[in-house]
């Protein structure tokens, strides 16, 4: 089928393709943000499982935008765009950017900077891998902050989400940035599961042994700052058996 008339997202081609995509999405042992051929393979497996088209040029991209298969990514108070030639992405990628940027700004006090989103093959840099999924609209690049605390928060969060098998992330050194390939369907399911967890918890959480404020904030899609304010905590120390109230308005 001609890709210009092909919808960007179709069900995976049977249970075998879905199973293969799930296996390839599993993070390797000794998980890190180091670029690897295995990571590229997992990204491509997800693109194929989603039946995504690799866009050829700007006209091809515009065709997808006009049909709503790619959506505008509009900056807000939590993030800005810098150098992104085509400010469009898959709807789930836009959702990821908005959610991550809100949490990032709450955690370290600065706006997230998105440097690249969808790039058709005609606009890929010369050094780009032939396996890059930027032409599918499921990838983005994030600027590396000068603040160590911001870098640590972002890297920890990306590794956490990679461990949940909803994305693949790597740190690229030239120029310094984080490359992220979001897996749309798994990520959408993950976001829905967070909403379900908040409803089931009745807006409170019983602290388990070994849990940290960071882990609880991630589970309920809120920030450490709001958790501490809601519960009158002055430090980061919590105890097993302690009941924490979950801040309203997460999501």
Describe the overall structure.
This protein is an alpha+beta fold and 251 residues long. The chain has two domains: 3-184, Muramoyl-pentapeptide Carboxypeptidase, domain 2 (2-Layer Sandwich), CATH 3.30.1380; 202-245, Membrane-bound Lytic Murein Transglycosylase D, Chain A, CATH 3.10.350.10. It is 40% helix and 15% strand. The protein has helices spanning 14-25, 37-49, 58-66, 91-108, 148-163, 184-201, 213-219, 224-231, and strands at 71-72, 79-81, 88-89, 112-116, 139-143, 167-173, 176-182, 204-206, 243-245. A five-stranded mixed beta sheet has the order 2-4-5-7-6, with helices on both faces. A two-stranded antiparallel sheet has the order 1-3. A two-stranded antiparallel sheet has the order 8-9. α1 (14-25) runs antiparallel to α2 and α4 (91-108) packs across α6 (184-201). The protein starts with 13 loop residues before the first helix and ends in a 6-residue tail after the last strand.
Write the layout of secondary structure elements.
Elements: H1 14-25, H2 37-49, H3 58-66, E1 71-72, E2 79-81, E3 88-89, H4 91-108, E4 112-116, E5 139-143, H5 148-163, E6 167-173, E7 176-182, H6 184-201, E8 204-206, H7 213-219, H8 224-231, E9 243-245
Parallel strand pairs: 2-4
Antiparallel strand pairs: 1-3, 4-5, 5-7, 6-7, 8-9
Helix pairs in contact: 1-2, 4-6
